[in-house]
Every structure is written in C-alpha cells, then in structure tokens.
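fyi for ur records
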Amino acid sequence: MRGASSGRAVCFYGVMQKFADEAIIEVIAGNGGNGCVAFRREKYAPMGGPSGGDGGKGGDVIFEVRRNLRTLAHLRYKQTFKAENGRDGEGSQRYGRNGADILVPVPPGTIIKDAETGEVIRDFGNDEGKFVFLKGGNGGWGNVHFKSSTNQAPRRALDGQRGPSHRLKVELQVMADIGFVGFPNAGKSSLLDRFTNARPKIAPYPFTTKIPNLGILTVDDRDIILADIPGLIEGASHGAGLGIRFLKHISRTAGLAFLIDLADPQYLNAFDTLLKELEAFSPDLIAKERVLIGTKLDLDGTTEALEELRNKYHAEQVLGISVFSGEGLSEVSAAFMAMIVRMERNEVEGA
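which gave:
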C-alpha cells in the first residue's frame, strides 16, 4: 500500500493495459448453400418426382460486447472474420445445414465505422449483448420447388446467395471513470504509476505516452478506472500533436482530473488553455465533473505556486500532490470517489 488513507480504505494498486484503440478489419457473412437437383429413385417409384433439398443459410456476422475486454488488441492479430457457408441441399429433400455465425468480440465504448467513408455504423457506448451486422446469404431452392403440372421433372435449382462483406474501421473510446488531462510531462503517467502500480513509460520529454494507459484505483472496495491519455498541446482540438485522437478518449469519462505542473513557468495559464481546447472539441467536456491537481510539490517553489493557483481558481477544487513523497494522494483519491458518487446520484435523479 502506498500513501496515507486518513481513515478511508484506499488501495493504490491495479492493472494497467496498454491501449489498442483502432483497427481495420474485414467481415464476411457466409454464402448460402446451393439447392439440389435430385429425384426419388425407390423400388416402387423408379420415376419418382423431384426430391432436391434446399441449401442452408450462410452464417451471420455478429458483434458482441464483452465487458471483460478493455482494448482492441485482439483485432490487430485477427483482421478477417468470416462466417461459415451454408451446406448444399441433398436428395430426399434433405436440407443443407445452416452455416455457423461468426462472433466479433468488442469492449464497451466501441464504434464501428465504414473504413472508406468514415460513416458511423454502430456506436456501442454502454450497450451490452449482440448486434447482427451482416446477414448470411439465403440457401438456394432445390428442384422440389419447381415442380408443376407442366413440368413434373424439373432439373432446375437455385444457387445460394453470396454473403455480403464489409471493410470496417473499429475504434474504441476509453470507458474510464476519471480521465487525466494535462500538457506533456504534467505528471499524468507518474500519478497513474503511483496509484495503480502500473508501469506506463515515464521520461522527461514530451509525448512519452502515445497510447492511453488504464489503471485501477480501489477506494472503499470500489474500483475506479483511471485513464492516462497522451498529453495535450495547444491546438489539439484542430489536430495538433496527438490532437483529435487524444480528445476522443476523454469524451466518455465520468470526470476529469486536470494535472498542472507547478514547476512550469506557465502553470497559471495552463488550466485556461486546457479548457479552451476541450471546449473547442466538444462543449460537453467542460461540463464534466473535474478537479485541478497541482503536481511536483516536492520541488522548490511549488508550494507557493499551488497557493497562487488556488487563489486564481477559488471556485474550483484545487489539490496539490507529490508522487514521490505521497503528499496529497489520499485527498486526490477521495476527490475521485466523490466525483463518481455525485455523477451516479445525478444519473439516478435524472432517470
């Protein structure tokens, strides 16, 4: 255990997952089986009528939301998903077996887009369950369907329909409770490391974190999912730096933690710049629950800087931390828990 708890059960540990947030895949529904041309050939019916069975239906392509998944890493290794073809029909009116469906597992927060146009096909959000995206081809009719008064021995059957295919871009938006917002080197990765025993890459140069990292902080037997997301720079809302790819990941977090480097000469302007970028991307972001966290309190002059930050933003909750000494970590974890409780209460009252 790290840090003091002040009477609260705070456990600074968890699991960090490096994030795979995009993948291009091809999905193919199964072809329908062909219908059969056959005739009854029995001892007492040597010239029996048509008996060709229908082909089986091709398997469907089904997306299934699984809450145990957190990334799209599995789609990087398997990029083609093909359902089974239906079997051909047989004589004696035996129908071909239907093809097995193919399941594509995805985590909550997945968005499926057309890979060519970018059109959103499905936004899973918090959805659970299954979504049938492509239907398999129908099986072809056997010749038994073509018997008529003028054609007692039809030699016609239909081929099965081909299953449709689609090339998709699959994206994942972080489904975290608290998203860390800050400029590069503001201390986001260090805080995640201290809270969760995760091991995100940490170094004193910009954009050390290029993919989101997730960690779990446990407070009062409640797991809080934290997201350390690549550092923001001015102009990110227009694509600068890691730009839009960064900002899309905080759109679904319950609350935001703005980390401000108290040793940075521009620390008093950092929060205003961050808010400006978030609002330019989506006004909804600045309406989220938030807390300001001044970092690096172990460095000279940062205690005074924290007081100046509090004076400027007296209407905001401003906390200070040092990940090295542990100062302020208990207060931050309690603030995260309070944010989630308020959010859940608002959801119940608004339901």
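The first helix runs from residue 73 to 77. thats all i got for now
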